[in-house]
Amino acid sequence: MPISAVSPLNHCYCTASLVKTRTPTTSLKCNFLSPVTKNPLLSRSKNQLSYTTCTNRSKKFGLTIVAMSFEAGIGVMGTKLGMMSYFEPDGTVVPVTVVGFREGNIITQIKSQSTDGYDAVQVGYRRVRDKKLTKPELGHLEKAGVIPMRHLQEFRLQSIDGFETGQKLVFEEIFKEGDLVDVSGTTIGKGFQGGIKRHNFKRGPMSHGSKSHRALGSIGAGTTPGRVYKGKKMPGRMGGTKRKIRKLKIVKIDNDLRVVMIKGAVPGKPGNLLRIAPAKIVGVNIPKS
Q: What is the pLDDT along the chain (289 residues), one digit of tens a residue?
């Protein structure tokens, strides 16, 4: 019987020599064979709890923190209105996406390293009636002293100086014409689709003698390996996923109509929520490491 089968975490723990050498051989102490000893991994207080590597490679006991990536700067949320052609002064026709803004883009919470473990700014968008939100959601927004809003998103920043709860973010003050932005949204859902539409597969001959027109065909080998490889491109649900289009240029900001025109296409259909943030350029506004 392997020793791991009779030595769970509350009975066995790794010694310091095991942590340093990363060679789990015979340097294990077990309660079954020795006097009762407090487990150092379980006896620490919450404030002293930290990462401790107890096996080779990447197995860890303790807290696991999943960190999201930094943004190049604070961003806003908007609503996709559609696409159109924009004529520049020199006559060049540019396909643009028109993005509008409903009531919102108000800071609802400031998260700091001391209280939450990371620095971020939470922004709310699109005002709704009170009955559209739950009581915990209403309580969170009332604590910040802001109006009820449907969407809440965070922007993780390297510095949160200059931001305060209840502050309204104005697009013209953050961006200007010619800036590059990253636009995130949910793509249009296509439902269950075949391999041709979903993965751009080629079809077979459509003549009478062909027995394979739009069918997928073989999906793997024979007895070896006797299974279908993971990640095989096959028919399935298409669209309806989050996508980010990077480094799109702001062509026009219209303050009268409260819209912004962004060159190119962005995810989703008209009416969808969009997240607009400064484009990430490594070495310019994002550190290399």
A: 444 444 444 444 444 444 444 444 433 333 333 444 444 444 444 444 344 334 444 444 444 344 468 888 899 999 999 999 999 999 999 999 999 999 989 999 999 999 998 999 999 999 999 999 999 999 999 999 999 999 999 999 988 998 999 999 999 999 999 999 999 999 999 999 999 999 999 999 999 988 889 998 888 888 888 999 999 999 999 999 999 999 999 999 999 999 999 999 999 999 999 999 999 988 887 777 6
Neighbours of 258 (CB within 10 A): 14
pTM for the model stands at 0.71
Dihedral, 64, 70, 76, 77 alpha carbons, nearest 10 = -50
> In angstroms, how far apart are the furthest CA atoms of the chain?
86
| Ordered structural domains, the chain, with CATH | 76-188+238-278 (2.40.30.10)
Give the Cα separation of 61 and 9 in Å (integer).
Answer: 9
